[in-house]
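Re: beginner question about structure tokens

> Can someone show what the tokenized structure looks like for a real chain? I only ever see the sequence side.

Sure, here's an example I had lying around. Input first:
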Amino acid sequence: MALIVSFIARMVFVKVLGAEYLGVNGLFTNLLSILAFAELGIGTAITYSMYKPLAVRDINQIKTLMRLFKRAYLTIGTSILILGLSFTPFLDKLLKDMPNIDHLPLIYIMFVINSSISYFYSYKRSLIIADQKYHIDTLYRYGFKIALDILQIIVLLITKNFLLFLALQTVMTFLQNLSISRKAEKMYPYIKEKNIKKMDVGTKNTIIKNVKALIYHKVGSIVVMGTDNILISKFVGIAAVGIYSNYYLIIGAVNTVSGVMFQSMTASIGNLGVTANKEKKLFVFDCLNFITFWIYGFSSIALLILFNPFIEIWLGDEFLFPMLITLLIVLNFYVGSMRKSVLTFREALGLYWYDRYKPLFEAGINLVVSIILVNKIGISGVFVGTFFSTITTCFWVEPYILYKHGFNHPVRSYFFRYLFYTLTIVFTGYVTWTITEKVGSSSILALILKICIVTIVPNVIFGIFYSKTKEFKYFKKLILSKLIRK
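And the corresponding structure tokens:
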């Protein structure tokens, strides 16, 4: 439901305000994600430290960690507000051509305020997530998202005012975080108690060590994921940012659906890391890696085939990229998404320290290659830079660290599986593409037919190839057991 409303909201946004406003919206959102560097990975480090006390119900330790969380996030929110506002005089430096939009500095300031206030209450949601109750956070998050999108649609249709559009966003961000905060207090009433013990030296040192490592990871993530729109805006133009933001919205929708599973599993794996032996952890990882391949392999094929036909019907052919650029976007989606099983285990097991320098190399390679190529081949260069930096760093370093320090097991089995999974996806994608090409046309009926083909063919081929594997049998047994219970 939330995804459908989001797509309708984007369609209304484009029709009412146009591509320039869409580009500014994407650029400022991207810029604020860079300012999130102020978070420094503190939330992730503290959440990891909660797994053990939650598993053994150590209330005193939980209260101590929550106090630290509160102090840290108040500082972070204030820092983002100050840093964000300090960039206001330099907005023209980020744009190749200044768009004809009134009150641009005020628009940016409203983005900064919205980003900063999200930290003032949100720390309590981390307790809910760490306690393996991610579904509660999801309910609040997407309930407010649906309400926001509906209200923004109404405001745009009636007033066509972007400032009111943003004001609604800020109000709903505040209300969402306040509501989830109140819910956490009801679920864990002891977090309101004042008798809080001082943090022990061991926990403090662990958090400090993890934060130091996560600073590097934060830098790498921000440079790689947060600079694409800035580079596109600077070297290509704000309209291209708007077009890319539509592709990114669809990818975001896919990640939203799949991300619920991965987020909810992180806490469970964190508990597993405390209680299970090496063989059990390795089997669970193999199963998670298998389902990662299935979900994102299928998604990559679907995106490649359906991206442009869907956007053409949804927004119009003026919002389409050429097929080569679309292929590069999907390729980055695939190599990025296939990391999720490794990253989920790394976060749950707290293995941040061992690959702390990797993000710096990743960020450096990404920036250098992207800037060189964007001047030579345009927007494609930005996406090639992202792909190249991922393959030369994350692709091999992250699984190597996980297998060495998390499983104490040779990593070659992971790369063998990765190769076989990728070959399966290439073959399946070719077969599916060949079939859908016979459909032709860009009508709604043709799109529906392509969706049916894309839904059936890859899943049938995957099933044929992997039905004998232990991972497939595990999920088959799991699904059947749930159906029988119902």
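Each token stands for a local structural state, so reading them left to right follows the chain. The chain has a mean pLDDT of 85.
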